[in-house]
UniProtKB/TrEMBL annotation:
Organism: Phaeobacter piscinae
Domain of life: Bacteria
Keyword Transmembrane: no
CDD domains referenced in this protein's UniProt entry, alphabetically: NUDIX_AcylCoAdiphos_Nudt19
Protein name: NTP pyrophosphohydrolase
Organism taxonomic ancestry: Bacteria, Pseudomonadati, Pseudomonadota, Alphaproteobacteria, Rhodobacterales
Domain Nudix hydrolase: 28-219
InterPro entries: NUDIX_hydrolase-like_dom_sf (IPR015797), NUDIX_hydrolase_dom (IPR000086), NUDT19 (IPR039121)
Length: 255
């Protein structure tokens, strides 16, 4: 089994083979949300929910990933039964639009629903007719709720990729999911082989580099209940990678 890189070490080892290509990259960077559902957090071998992207996917084909995707324009208008914890809102607002945290939380819940069929919500009736993307979710009799989400990581896709995202990663304990966590019958076909993978085995799968880094952070804080005061930020600029921490602290370098 391969050894997981520490976040700081992984960032130091990452660079660009062609800085000129990086400078020419004009690919738009889209805001995105990824959700890391974990079950048996306090057990001997916690598990994370992951699936495999299709072979023809433009972004990370065949890779095993967490559910997630880009923020949609309508996500900012979807009501939440309960908001993100205030600490998460504060961290999400750093080096970002101050009001983006709502749309990011909504996107994370929507992607979990679309890609796995699992419901992060509470029983309730929508006050207005939901958008098309939320009609099936609303039909289950639930309102999306974000109070159980923990903002734990942020990463920007490096230049030179076919698509680039400014992704925020949210951790959620499976105990807060309202539906049967083993029932993926309502999932879309975007991810295949949906499964709960033990942390002790997950690095034997074909993972993207950034997923390896995020898993190291998740493993480090797997048994902590509240959201972190300081969040790792893997920021890829035009010519270099920087590993920072939101709240103003640089990541310590491993010597």
């Amino acid at each position: 089994m391969s050894k997981s890189p520490t976040p700081a070490k992984a960032a130091i080892d990452t660079g660009y083979a062609d800085a000129a290509t990086a400078r020419r990259d004009t690919t738009p960077i889209r805001n995105a949300a990824t959700i890391i559902a974990v079950r048996d957090r306090m057990g001997d071998d916690p598990q994370v929910l992951m699936g495999q992207r299709g072979a023809r996917a433009a972004f990370m084909p065949n890779k095993v990933v967490f559910p997630g995707g880009a923020v949609d324009p309508g996500d900012s208008d979807v009501p939440l039964a309960s908001p993100l914890p205030s600490l998460c809102q504060d961290r999400l607002s750093e080096q970002s639009d101050a009001d983006l945290h709502h749309a990011l939380a909504v996107a994370a819940i929507r992607e979990l629903w679309e890609e796995t069929g699992l419901i992060l919500g509470q029983p309730g009736t929508w006050a207005t007719t939901p958008e098309a993307d939320w009609a099936d979710f609303a039909a289950t009799g639930h309102l999306p709720t974000a109070e159980a989400l923990q903002f734990v990581f942020r990463a920007i896709t490096p230049p030179g990729r076919p698509r680039r995202f400014d992704a925020r990663f949210f951790l959620v304990d499976a105990a807060h999911i309202s539906s049967d966590i083993d029932d993926f019958s309502r999932a879309s076909d975007e991810l295949s082989h949906l499964q709960w993978i033990p942390l002790s085995q997950v690095r034997t799968y074909d993972l993207p580099f950034i997923t390896e880094v995020v898993l190291a952070e998740v493993t480090r804080r797997i048994r902590q209940d509240g959201p972190p005061e300081s969040v790792p930020f893997f920021r890829n600029d035009d010519e270099a990678s920087h590993f920072l921490r939101l709240k103003g602290y640089p990541m310590p370098r491993d010597d």
